[in-house]
Amino acid sequence: MKIKTQEISTGILDEKEVQLFVKRIDLIHEFISGNKWYKLKYNLLEAKKNLFNTLLTFGGAYSNHILATSVLANENGFKSIGIIRGERCSDLNPTLKLAKEYGMQLHYVNRNEYQSKKTSKFLSALRNKFGDFYLIPEGGSNKFALKGTSEIITKIDSQDYICCSVGTGTTLAGIINSSSIKQNIIGFPAIKGYKELKKEIQGVTTKSNWLLNNDFCFGGYAKTNPLLINFINTFNKNQLIPLDAIYTGKMMFGILELISKDYFPKGSSILAVHTGGLQGNKGMNQRFGFSLP
Ligand SMILES: *Cc1c(COP(=O)(O)O)cnc(C)c1O
Fold first, then answer.
1. Ligand 1 neighbourhood includes 139 CB (under 6 angstroms)
2. pLDDT, tens digit (0-9, with 9 covering 90-100), for 215-268
3. What does R_g of the chain's alpha carbons equal in angstroms?
4. Percent of the chain beyond pLDDT 90?
5. In sequence order, what are the residues at sequence separation of 6 or more whose Cβ sits closer than 8 angstroms to the Cβ of residue 142?
6. What domains does the chain contain, in order, with CATH numbers?
7. How many CB atoms lie within 10 A of CB 130?
8. Does the pLDDT value for residue 1 go beyond 80?
9. What residues form DSSP beta bridges with 19?
10. Is 116 left (phi over 0), alpha (psi -120 to 50) or beta?
11. Nearest residue to 63 via CA among 270, 266, 244, 235
12. Residue 150 in contact with ligand 1 by CB distance below 6 A
């Protein structure tokens, strides 16, 4: 697949003498966040190989992963079941509405049940209810996902720094594993206080050319403030690149903030991976009256 990389042009980059590029894996599909496409790729092959006809996975009501799974299941001839955390609302939000249109069967569980989603008791209850299925963990994160995300960065991505938004860390881990040791990888966590994150990434990577920057999660997962929303809208107006408010907006805000604080040496080049997430803006706009792109 040919993925477009765009150079950003803005005054601060000239002033600080750094180059910033965006790898647009968000453009792979309107409803499949780019990194979720890579995370699901080898899971779909594994499910096919083992002759499953149903995929089952977990997620919140606005989950990029839930929607991505429904679309890819549909395109590849699988049935899909989404176990959704929380109460069913009478009006489906834009994410779940689309997932349903793509044929996903939605099943709601309360937060306590959701917590126990990895237990064999909960899973065998699901198998009794739905029949056999190929299980994809929350966020799609497993070893097949890691194999897929190690294909995001290739040899042509030779910038000095690679930046990526982080949830479970599987996307970042794939990027670390496929990077050159001369490159510096920076992850921007979207979740606050996820203590095991660093250890989990260390557990599946072989290099130490990376770090997590926790300064730009804006209070926590899916939290926003007017500064972030304005930033996303201004960035879209000036660069014609839409960002989402949960992952990529926070990462890009962080990168530009670090540039303005001289974090990156003069002459260095930075690649930001645009993982997608844009489907989520619709739900944010509906809930909070934002006008995100
Ligand atoms: C899920 C997601 C992430 C985080 O990916 P992980 O592999 O869980 O770290 C980042 N960006 C977007 C847009 C996502 O949907």
1. yes
2. 999 999 999 999 999 999 999 999 999 999 999 999 999 999 999 999 999 999
3. 19
4. 96
5. 43, 136, 170
6. 5-31+144-288 (3.40.50.1100), 35-140 (3.40.50.1100)
7. 15
8. no
9. 269
10. alpha
11. 244
12. no
Segment 147-174 shows an average pLDDT of: 97
From 22, 23, 28, 33, mutation site for ligand 1 pocket: most ligand atoms within 8 A of C-beta: 33
Q: What is the Cα–Cα distance from 59 to 61, expressed in whole angstroms? A: 7
Q: How far is the CA of 14 from the centre of ligand 1 (A)?
A: 30
Task: Point out the ligand 1 atom lying closest to the alpha carbon of residue 276.
Answer: 13
Quote the pLDDT of residue 2.
78
Residue 247 Cβ contacting ligand 1 at under 6 Å: yes
Q: What is the arithmetic mean of pLDDT over 27-38?
A: 97
Structure-derived torsion over alpha carbons of residues 200, 212, 139, 225, reported in degrees to the nearest 10: 150
| Those residues with Cβ within 8 angstroms of residue 275's Cβ, 6 or more apart along the chain or in another chain | 25, 26, 33, 34, 35, 164, 165, 171, 247, 248
Per-residue pLDDT averaged across 209-220, rounded? 97
User: pLDDT tens-digit profile of 67-114?
Assistant: 999 999 999 999 999 999 998 888 999 999 999 999 999 999 999 999
